[in-house]
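User: quick one, fold this
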Amino acid sequence: MTDNTAKVHFRVIRFIHEAGLRLRLKSVPLATACIIYHRFFKEYTLQQYDPYLIASTTLYIAGKVEENQVTLRDVVNVCYRTLHRSKPPLEMGDMFFALKETIAKCELFVLRALQFRVVYNHPHRYLLHYLTFIKEWMEPYKWDELPLARTSWALLRDSYHSTLCLQYKPQHIAVAILYMTLESHGADIPFEETAVTPWWKVFAEDITLDIIKQIVGELINTYDLEMISS
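Assistant:
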């Protein structure tokens, strides 16, 4: 993937998050939309298909898959307004109906392209589970003074700007995000130095420190991409 292609994908994922929040999609449907987008462009190029059309379609599909359904009318209106900030709202006319029909047709095309495999196992439930254990392990005052949960969820959301979701197990992503969170805040797990098994191995037996550092490194690269894409 070239730098320019990576920049375009970064901006489009940011568009998915912004439009999705306006559509009141929850975090898991948003994650599903991002994975559908990344999987589609793993098979096709930006020269073949409009990324913003595909992104708008993934929001519509994800809402259905995750039972957080939004109307096609709202998808058209919100995505248009998000993409064309300086233009007036879309009126109920030829352009509206053309966009509505285009997304409806694109939905079936994307589903066929992905062989209708659009149900995914996300890191969210693992991260929630792991955070519960971390909270129990830490001193209450330490947990209260550090925004570990907030930072972890923010890192998970940002991870979807990259293709980490296609490369690694959701459990491994959740562990790596926790590792990065703890490192960022200079927080330690109690008795880690004397423990026989590292805390991250407790959560995922097949994970290694190398895998954790690979995921953290790719996430850091994503933030570097954000700086040059702004």
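User: anything notable?
Assistant: The mean pLDDT is 92.
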